[in-house]
Design brief:
This protein is of the alpha/beta class. It has 14 helices and twelve strands. The chain folds into three domains: 109 residues, 3-Layer(aba) Sandwich (Rossmann fold), CATH 3.40.50; 99 residues, 3-Layer(aba) Sandwich (Rossmann fold), CATH 3.40.50.10800; 79 residues, Rossmann fold (3-Layer(aba) Sandwich), CATH 3.40.50. Helix 8 links the parallel strand 7 and strand 8. The longest helix is centred in the N-terminal third of the chain and has 25 residues. It is globular, with a radius of gyration of 20 Å. Bound molecules: 1,3-dihydroxyacetonephosphate and iron/sulfur cluster (SF4). It is an enzyme of class 2 (transferase). It holds the Pfam family NadA. It catalyses: iminosuccinate + dihydroxyacetone phosphate = quinolinate + phosphate + 2 H2O + H(+).
Length: 312
């Protein structure tokens, strides 16, 4: 951007931040932002986090209004966990293609074929699917959750890459759904080989939503929070990062002296980036778009989320 355009944008954002502060007070609202959100949203959030931390914050808040800056299933999970709160999202078109790869009918059919199996569903799923689920998990607790389940057979959905990764850390038989994240699945072995040649002193850190052959190449495998913690605590000064590029905001904040190279220019989730600061302000002004989950679905889905929150 040209200097003048940058200046204008900075001025606009300053005005938007002031308006947001005022609206937050008027509405008694909190802003939750996933680490994949644009910097301008992460900057104003009351809590930045991964899907697990943000679900915990939604369940525990005493604010009247939650503005959930992430994708649709995250707003839904917040509403399920905090049914008496108003949950707003900046843009209701921010969906998750992986969550859309499984539907309740398909899951019911698979359950009928494996009546002894328990269903573990990644939080990246719709409320309808969670309602058919025994226990949810996120990438930060998936192994713990699977091993906590009282069954030898697990139906795992929807992420086949995370499912493959988890299956290496359990004796349970895992029946794995064929879903995937369009963004993480885009990262290839070739991308990593090329980046390593360019940055020979860098460590490669990766999210387990990436393909198994890419995950195998990593110096560290972890959820978004796991990656952030590892990079912050490591003595290494340079990293090739195999997850969504919004994490750069927190990585640079935690370690301004370290260098982070994203492993591919395609590691950008277009759904997460649909949201911007202007839409966050507009959501609080208009109190729209609001998330609704039918009560019967929410009541069933809540059990699977609450079971996850109880796993220690
Ligand atoms: P986490 O926040 O659990 O790391 O999930 C990654 C993701 O893709 C969220 O959409
Ligand atoms: Fe869905 Fe992948 Fe985007 Fe996360 S990064 S919201 S899993 S498409």
């Amino acid at each position: 951007m040209e200097a003048l355009a940058l200046e204008r944008k900075a001025e606009q954002n300053r005005e938007l931040r002031e308006r947001l502060l005022q609206l937050k007070k008027e509405r008694n609202a909190i802003i939750l932002a996933h680490y994949y959100q644009r910097d301008e949203i992460q900057e104003v959030a009351d809590f930045r986090g991964d899907s697990f931390l943000l679900a915990q914050k939604a369940a525990a808040t005493d604010a009247d209004v939650i503005v959930f800056c992430g994708v649709h299933f995250m707003g839904e999970s917040a509403k399920i966990l905090a049914p008496n709160k108003t949950v707003l999202v900046p843009d209701e078109r921010a969906g998750c293609p992986m969550a859309d790869m499984v539907n309740p009918n398909g899951l019911r059919e698979l359950k009928a074929k494996h009546p002894d199996a328990k269903v573990v569903t990644y939080i990246n799923s719709s409320a309808d699917v969670k309602a058919e689920t025994d226990i949810c998990c996120t990438s930060s607790n998936a192994i713990k959750v699977v091993n906590s389940v009282d069954a030898d057979e697990i139906i795992w959905c929807p992420d086949k890459n995370l499912g493959h990764y988890v299956s290496q850390f359990t004796d349970k038989k895992m029946i794995i759904w064929e879903g995937y994240c369009n963004t993480h699945d885009m990262l290839t072995v070739k991308d990593v080989v090329e980046m390593r040649a360019k940055h020979p002193n860098a460590q490669f850190v990766v999210h387990p939503e990436c393909r198994p052959e890419v995950v195998e190449m990593a110096d560290f495998v972890g959820s978004t929070t796991g990656i952030l913690k590892y990079c912050k605590e490591s003595d290494c000064k340079e990293f090739i990062v195999g997850t969504e590029d919004g994490t750069g905001y927190q990585l640079r904040l935690d370690s301004p002296d370290k260098t982070f190279h994203f492993a591919s220019k395609f590691l950008v989730c277009p759904n997460m980036k649909v949201n911007n600061l202007k839409k966050v302000v507009r959501a609080l002004e208009t109190m729209q778009p609001e998330i609704y989950v039918p009560e019967d679905v929410a009541n069933k889905a809540r059990l699977s989320l609450e079971r996850m929150l109880q796993v220690k």
